[in-house]
Design a protein that fits this description.
The structure is a single chain. By secondary structure, the protein is α+β, with helices and mostly antiparallel strands. It has two domains: 72 residues, no CATH class; 112 residues, no CATH class. Helix content is 40%, strand content 16%. The protein has eight helices and six strands, in the order H-H-H-H-E-H-E-E-E-H-H-H-E-E. Strands 1, 2, 3 and 4 form a four-stranded antiparallel β-sheet that branches. Strands 5-6 form a two-stranded antiparallel sheet. Strand 5 and strand 6 form a beta hairpin. Helix 1 crosses helix 3. It starts with 25 loop residues before the first helix and ends with a strand.
């Protein structure tokens, strides 16, 4: 179960080291988290399938999701951090004809059917349905390099990008702003450019 049990942070009902009332099944809690996230719903949907109260899920879900992201983010997202990383990623783009490019970036929208009624106008997109928006960066190899925190879709892309730490880093960090690379003009002449 994704190393959850081995982390020692999460106890299962089969854990005999716990005195007193046995905790609810870890499998049931994690399955409920996945259901809540999959439906984009509130913690109260956990009660329907598992009998776990919204209050119990409210205490569990945030801690477990934070732990999951911290434990597994590096398995799916490979950040661009060192000068060597920058050179490698920019070099891959240069071979494709995009010198000076460090990532392809776009806002990805995800349906949010469980959006609370009071927030529908905040999360309502062009299709008049609530969605969540994530700014996602990938490299020339298709690897995810950064994913910004979720933003309500009603915010435009210019607002969303300001909350994207990686995009701001590219615009402000000297490792990116002072980086130099070679381009070829239409005439075939070489020219050095600065800033990714």
């Amino acid at each position: 179960m994704l190393q959850t049990r081995r982390s020692r942070l999460w106890r299962d009902s089969n854990d005999n080291s716990v005195r007193g009332a046995k905790p609810l099944s870890l499998h049931l809690k994690v399955a409920s988290v996945i259901r809540i996230l999959g439906l984009g719903a509130g913690q109260d949907v956990a009660e329907e399938g598992s009998g776990i109260s919204a209050e119990t899920m409210g205490r569990f879900i945030h801690k477990w999701v934070d732990w999951f992201v911290e434990s597994y983010e590096s398995a799916w997202i490979v950040p661009i951090e060192s000068e060597e990383d920058i050179e490698t990623v920019e070099g891959d783009f240069a071979q494709l004809g995009f010198p000076g490019c460090i990532s392809f970036m776009d806002v990805v929208h995800m349906s949010y059917p469980g959006c609370p009624a009071a927030l529908k106008t905040v999360y309502e997109g062009m299709e008049k349905e609530p969605t969540l928006a994530f700014n996602v960066h990938i490299d020339a190899q298709g690897r995810k390099r950064a994913i910004a925190r979720v933003a309500p879709v009603a915010k435009n892309d210019m607002t969303i990008i300001r909350a994207d730490r990686f995009a701001m880093k590219v615009l402000e960090d000297p490792n990116f702003t002072e980086y130099t690379y070679k381009i070829f003009r239409e005439s075939g002449a070489e020219e050095m450019m600065k800033g990714l």
